[in-house]
Design brief:
4-stranded parallel beta sheet, mainly alpha, 63% helix, two-stranded antiparallel ribbon
Length: 496
Amino acid sequence: LGGSRFQIGGPTGAFVVVVLDVIARHGFDGLLLATALAGIMLVIAGFAGLGTWIKYIPQPVITGFTAGIAVIIFSTQIKDLLGLQMGAVPGEFVEKVESYAEHLPTWSGPATLIAAISLGTIIVLRKYAPRWPGFLMAVIVGSVLAWAFDMPVTTIGSQFGELPHGLPAPQLPDVSWAKLRAVVPSAFTIAFLAGVESLLSAVVADGMTGRRHRSNCELVAQGIANFASTLFGGLPATGAIARTATNVRSGARSPVAGMLHAVFLLLFMLLLAPLISYVPLASLAAVLVIVAWNMSEIDRFRYLMRAPLGDRLVLLLTFALTVMIDLTVAISVGVVLAAMLFMHRMAEAVAIQSRRSIIETDQDDLKRHQDEYTRRLRLPKGVEVFELRGPLFFGVANRLNDVLDRIGPMPKAFILILRDVPLIDATGASALEEFLSRCKRHNTTVYLAEMTRPVKSLLASMHVLKDNVRSVASFEEAVAVIEREGAPAEAPATAT
């Protein structure tokens, strides 16, 4: 049912925090009800065409809450990572840290050794055998060591008892008006996370394959999948970026790969459930530490810390609220703050441009079309030119790469005129960097012409400009440079 041919769905690390919180507040029945409600929300969002609205979520908000989730996931694994002898881990971050400090003397040497070996296995395999299933090998190594040497470590079996190895009969979760009202905020968080992560995963698959996903169709499919999951007591699911990327790298060509992924999981559960009881929790904690590291997006976080002050505030506030308060609050505050920041920037941009005519006359419009026509006549062969007008902010950033999808075969040189771009925010800079990287992969030289001083300063501070990019004062200068260095030949027909 999905809108991407390569998407692999299932529970992901991002849901660890949400699932733990919902069960703590409303019990497992509350989680099932919230997941079912989230599924309905996603189906409605898909049919309402909201899948295209993901572009309105700024990059600092997405990076802030994913990095925050990574910190929370890591903090929840310290107990099993060190084998601390303590009861339930507190839900609040500060209380969690205080509890760990109090019980630190109770740490277990065998559990810490198993965790360290599992971590080392994953890291070594990633470096020297990246095609091997590192997570699975780490769990197997940790389990075999714990069993062979009879180590006194907590396992899935000793902690949770025998695992089921069959599917329960489908049934709807218990519904009451009071419970429904109580789980609505959690359902919204699950729906938001499932929608955003699925569409981001589909975008990653598009970048790797050159195909285009259908965002609204993907939302409907994820909604149906989440609702169906609750019928069998399942967890919330979404498109998994790591598994989807692995699927593409493994040579997947159709949705059959995703279907077989689900079939194999079912077979593992039906046939191997007794063996899973021997898995040490320390090994699983090591796996989740790597998951948290992958989710943290350290490089992306550092990159956005070079953005203007407003974007940095959105990033840090979303991150802090995710860790300290709640995901829903963090997302809401982050999006609202980003919108207010955008309105402020637009007001500043209007003030800067106040000497220009607000309403263009017919003569202005005619002159602009004449300029574009004569400009194209002067282009050397194998060169394309486009002009951006208006602010390059999070609401329109994705349109930049749509340009490359429309022009077909990549040109050998690309002139991008930024004269009428008064400002670029962090999301716009990220989109421009992706555009330039895509051009670089096709050996296309990009000429950025007529950049305003604020735009040039921002791009320089965020290190957006690649070695295939040249900054020129005007369109005429770009053409002169191309002609002086030799007009590029026609580019071969390459899929973009």
